[in-house]
User: What shape does this take?
Amino acid sequence: MEISTDAARAADILRRGGVVAVPTETVYGLAADADNPAAVQRIFAIKGRPSRHPLIAHLSDAAFLSEYLAPNAAAAALAKAFWPGPLTIIGVKTPRVIDAVTGGYPTVGVRVPAHPLTRAVIEALGAGRAIAAPSANRFGRVSPTTAAHVLADLGADVDLVLDGGACEIGVESTIVDVSGQAPVLLRPGAIGAAALAAVLGEEVRAPGDVHAVPAPGTLASHYAPRAAVELLAPHELLQRIATLVERGERVGVISSANVTVPTDAVALLVGGSDSELARGLYAALRQADALGLDVVLAAAPTADGLGEAVADRLRRASAPRS
Ligand code: TXA
Ligand code: MG
Assistant: This one.
């Protein structure tokens, strides 16, 4: 395992069937050559991820969309409006997309990430090539937003970590499914439902509104630290902290509201804009574990877009675990 900032070296390793952690504007990805089934298989092994759980194909440029997605006007409009950027578009796949990437589904998720280092890696692989990449964490755990997070999680299991600094956005891309009759928002992210609707000229449905493709990654319990996570309203925070501390629990707080956290609890991430919350969210959840906290109390933001994305990740982190 090595850490590097050299895109050509990363592309070299990918070409030989290696697995490389790459920076994106959302979170770090665990990448393999999307045309190499054995390399893609290694991603599932490293993550401990069920093999029917599809990966996102990351392209270097929207010009290559048609190599991966069957013709789709909605997909083309969204790509034009939001790529490079934090939007994954799900459509019917073309024959070139291998089953190892899609988990055998007839659809595929594609996006053009904004981080220049990773786009350079994909470009170096060759024109029209893609990397398949889920987030670079063990299955069900918190996504990494720095190279150090990747090392802490995956260490020697990856061939190289391409260090592109801390991720600007900090939560995973918005996922919109345009493979069916109506567009469906499968995962909230920085690009909100209103922004999507404005481009599509129609409302984006919630999963369950229509018969959408199964979204295996949208499991209830996900993005979870070891500490328990409890969601509550801002005005409930102080009372709940007092109750837990009284019981001898070590408590951390993540709150969009700017509350004053008493000194017998830890202010992990408090106040700040929705984008500051998103950028710091996963590092805060990791810090909770590093400090050996028992409970993270979270008061989530409510706005569309990043606020909704942060609330969604906190809901999943707080869901009952199997
Ligand atoms: O921001 C991101 O999207 C990051 C960076 C690395 O690009 N990637 C990421 O990948 O979050 P991952 O694998 O952790 O989450 C991808 C999600 C999964 O929930 C998966 O089920 C869903 O996308 N997905 C991918 N292809 C799909 C498909 N054909 N149909 C339904 N869901 C799909
Ligand atoms: Mg993930």
Remarks:
- The longest strand covers residues 87-92.
- The pocket of threonylcarbamoyladenylate (ligand 1) is lined by residues 24, 26-27, 29, 53-56, 88, 90, 102, 105, 107-109, 113, 133-135, 172-173, 175, 186, 213, 215-218 (CB under 6 Å).
